[in-house]
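This is your field. Pick holes in the following sequence-structure pair:
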Amino acid sequence: MRFLRSLYCWIVIAGATILWGLPAIPMGFVPPRGRWSMLFGRGWSRTILSGTGVRVRVLHAERFGRGESFVIAANHESFYDILVLFARLPMKISFLAKRNLFRLPILGWSMAAAGFVPVDRGERRRGAATIDAALRRAGKGASLIVFPEETRTLTGELLPFKAGAALLAIRSGLPILPIGIGGTFGILRRGGFTVVPSEVAMSVGEPIPVEGLSSRERGELTERLRERVAALRAEARAAVAYNPKPEQA
């Protein structure tokens, strides 16, 4: 039964990617660039969430503000984190994503057309180019989504944060909006096939201002950000009564 349910969920994921991803590729280049990509991206994510039986609660939605741009930093436990953010964030967004994702048929092509920023993990020589590309997106009014852990957790534990989100915020002057997501680890784990539909919560934190900070303070800002995200994730997990088993967390 679990296998058949998971197979059905993967069929929904594949079908939604084809349905929304193919037209998103040419539409991603239609001015104003990014507007159509957002519409197709939200349609893609909401179709998958609804089709696979995943419900999303948003805590403290008033903290999004109105018409504001941020560097958005969230924990990363599952592919479903991307869907939750795409479906529920009310502003124009752009993801920083691993470069190998851009090579995926349809999904990667639509990401490239939308102007998402490729990240080369561990390659410092491309780091400056990544920062510059992200800053250009921010300059066009997009909020930048960063997963400071840089990869999905295998255990359910929050991984150490890299300083990229803090550096982006300092360079752009945009406040950091911390977000904690709870429940996605139990739905679909990294490298797994089994999909277990359940309720997910996304807890929105108070924005962290960066005025007056220099790049030398990015380490301290990163630790502060990790503490905020950890607390928000705990709140989100409590909201959906998500308690991973000891061997899972």
User: Anything to note?
Assistant: The mean pLDDT is 89. Helices lie at 2-27, 35-51, 80-88, 107-114, 127-139, 164-172, 218-239. The chain has one domain: 2-248.
